[in-house]
TrEMBL record, chains A, B:
Source species of the chain: Frankia canadensis
Keyword Plastid: no
Oxidoreductase in keyword set: yes
The EC number(s) this enzyme carries: 1.1.1.-
Cited CDD domains: 2-Hacid_dh_1
Highest taxon in the source lineage: Bacteria
The protein's name: Putative D-isomer specific 2-hydroxyacid dehydrogenase
Pfam family, any one: 2-Hacid_dh_C
GO MF term (any one): oxidoreductase activity, acting on the CH-OH group of donors, NAD or NADP as acceptor
Domain D-isomer specific 2-hydroxyacid dehydrogenase NAD-binding, residue spans: 118-292
InterPro entries xref list: D-isomer_DH_CS, D-isomer_DH_NAD-bd, NAD(P)-bd_dom_sf
Keywords, alphabetical: NAD, Oxidoreductase
Length: 339, 339
């Protein structure tokens, strides 16, 4: 059961106040917004003061967790936009239960993440890590590689990012299937989508398990010891969603025991990943710094998406990418997934 | 001007003698051949003796260069098959000018090489080498990656392997074009194919230059200082053809001077690459051990291709993959490239 989506057209006042939570750098291309609004560029420690009276909030520094503490000061807020795809960091109960409309940056990260996942799949199949290690020793280490054509990927999370991953892996001949909340049989990109309750059963088919789900109460800790035990010993886990989708201790144990063959992790429970984490030095693990979706030019794209939504808000048009705060993501009808 | 292709149906004798040049391991699945022929498994040092009287030769150890020295002993040879795509190692003048039919292993390596090249392209675009280096230092090194969607690849060599590379790179949104001996305007896979004389002019458009040409008199040293100077400073060179297609000294100089951004090399003038080569330790170079086309299961596939051709030979049918020994590769009509 889900709550109704909050109204997508909060009335904008004549000259609104827009707070922008940013760290060291402001979003580019904000002149259009600055012309018609009082824009308060603010930081985590000044956020509460600047939220007072603000009509809209852009969470540009989406890694900040400052909003929840400052939330009681949000006395006039109607709309919050986040410069990320996942909204888990801002979906604390007070915001979720408020009338504030939440929008995200769907549309910016899909293609880059899909390419990144394919790069990781190919790095595993061709053992690029092994080749680079041999190169450091000036060692000619000939061996056979694996094909990706015909290999199977189970993609956990069937939102726009999982869907882009599916299309890209399929384009190089992989078999893909999806596991997601809305399990729904045939699907043009996934072939078939299974419900989350089928996760463990489907994982046994996978050469690659790609985790690209939103982090919600339902998905937290989804990939645990039982899920990992269901995977093939030759399978690799790729997580480009959120660290907490995977139980890290279970993953470390599974890798050490040879229950799965490897993991490529772009997201972690704590970011940056602490220097003491065992993941850094495990031979079958690739640690990357939450960069899968971030390509050259993504910051102007994120800013342009906010500016576009701002214009819609000013003109009373429906906002793009309205998050269903009870689902924890932007619900996308199956027919509208290729935009 | 090309010489006529030698006859593809050398008459097989009643019980032929088939020599198989192999190193430590014999080809699998040879029982069918052994039933109807006297099969002489031989090595480089015994080759001359075993070639005497042999009707057919399988060069299973295609890395061996023993054939030229043993050639005068080939007094009855009608057909030679090599377990590789490139035939440069056996195309010495005496074989080329003889009536011996030469066939190769076209059809086994195309898909694997295409995947490998895509893996290298993505490894560059996402800087996987940098991420792995940071991981070794337990360092969270966040930065923006590059997209491959929309990037341009110029593929040098428009035979079956270059064509498979073109299709695969195109499948992930790259723009591709071909440069090859038979420059011919529009092409379904390459978009457009330019002649070799246009090489230097076209290289300036490339984010990635993929060398997948056969090694012939015409292509030896094709990528030299002038060609490298024509490339963008941000471009990467990928060589999966033969080492001698690239002038190694020029490449090393270009990389050191920042004339191009990087190189991934799977083939070298001398293989294994000598430990003293500067390529091993250059920061923007990936050295891999001539493995791009060799996936798990490729040896049975190579053997099966020979056994199939052997059956054709016995039945007087046209052989598959007859090499035009003056061109140095199997000529493929444009309409027959998708088999």
């Amino acid at each position: 059961m889900t709550a109704p989506v909050p109204p997508a057209r909060p009335d904008p006042p004549a000259r609104p106040i827009v707070a922008v939570l940013c760290a060291d750098r402001r979003p580019p291309g904000m002149r259009e917004v600055e012309r018609g609004a009082d824009v308060r560029y603010t930081t985590a420690d000044r956020l509460a003061g600047d939220l007072r009276g603000a009509d809209a909030l852009l969470v540009w520094d989406f890694r900040s967790s400052a909003l929840e503490a400052a939330w009681p000061a949000a006395d006039a807020l109607r709309w919050t936009h986040v410069a990320s795809a996942g909204v888990d960091a801002v979906l604390f109960p007070a915001l979720r239960d408020s009338d504030v409309v939440l929008t995200n940056s769907r549309g910016v990260f899909e293609g880059p993440v899909a390419e990144y996942v394919l790069g990781l799949v190919l790095a595993f199949a061709k053992d690029l890590a092994g080749t680079m290690a041999a190169q450091r020793e000036r060692r000619w280490w000939y061996r056979e590689a694996e094909r990706v054509d015909g290999a199977t990927a189970v993609i956990v999370g069937t939102g726009p990012i999982g869907r882009a991953v599916a299309r890209t892996l399929r384009a190089v001949g992989m078999r893909v299937e999806g596991v997601g909340r809305g399990g729904r049989g045939h699907d043009p990109d996934f072939g078939v989508v299974h419900g989350l309750d089928a996760l463990t059963r489907r994982l046994g088919h996978a050469d690659y398990v790609v985790v690209a789900a939103p982090l919600t109460a339902r998905t937290t800790g989804l990939v645990d010891a039982a899920a990992l035990a269901a995977m093939k010993p030759s399978a690799r886990l790729i997580n480009v969603g959120r660290g907490a989708l995977v139980v890290t201790a279970d993953l470390v144990a599974a890798l050490r025991a040879g229950i799965i063959a490897g993991a490529a992790l772009d997201v972690f429970d704590t970011e940056p990943l602490p220097a003491g984490s065992p993941l850094w030095s495990m031979p079958n693990v690739l640690v990357s710094p939450h960069m899968a979706g971030d390509v050259v030019g993504h910051l102007p794209m994120l800013a342009a998406l906010f500016v576009d939504n701002y214009g819609r808000w000013r003109r009373g048009l429906p906002l793009r990418n309205v998050v269903d705060k009870y689902l924890g993501y932007v619900p996308v009808p199956a027919a509208a997934t290729r935009d």
